[in-house]
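Practice problem: predict the structure.
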Amino acid sequence: MLVVENLTVCYGGITALDNVSITIPDGKIVGLVGANGAGKSTTINTISGMVIPSGGNVKLDGESLLIPPQEIVKKGIVQVPEGRRIFPSITVQENLILGAYTLKGGEKVEENMQRMFELFPVLGERKNQDGGTLSGGEQQMLAIARALMSDPRILLLDEPSLGLAPKLVLEIFNMIQELNNRGLTILLVEQNAQKALNISDYAYVLETGRIVAEGEGKRIAEDPIVKKAYLGIEE
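Answer:
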């Protein structure tokens, strides 16, 4: 189980996160939603080691994760960053190989790559194309597949639907549910609150760096006060 305890992050004199605590149980989808600037990406970047907190802790099964990012990946926690950030000038296959840098043995890398091509058939069809030639939706699939190449225990998804057409958004969310059905634990950071809450077992709502609501995802999605005050969703 991944636990964020009283996390505080400051940038200069600005407090981006103020005593944020969240719990991500094994095998669940946990949603983290809120408006732009609420602190969602700061939270996920701190968990993955990209941001050093001013206070608090992040623990995996009781063990502190305030360690370098590469060590966090070795613990089985992998982030799919906002904006995909694939490598556009190398092939799909080469992007996937880079995602498997923590694995030992070429056979395991090849096995995982074939699994990615089964999960994302379009990537298999385009494996020799440069990443930059893929569509936005295909690049998002590549970013997720690259993260999965390391056999993660917990997947941190930062705004996976950003910039995608509605049909592709639906495909991405279906994919997230399928990955969870296969046993993957997921922290879903997403501005598309309604869709994120509908697939989350549990969810937290962030507002200006503080948790202002939490509960079962669908219950939060149906709460009119939360929808209007914190998510910008009118009845």
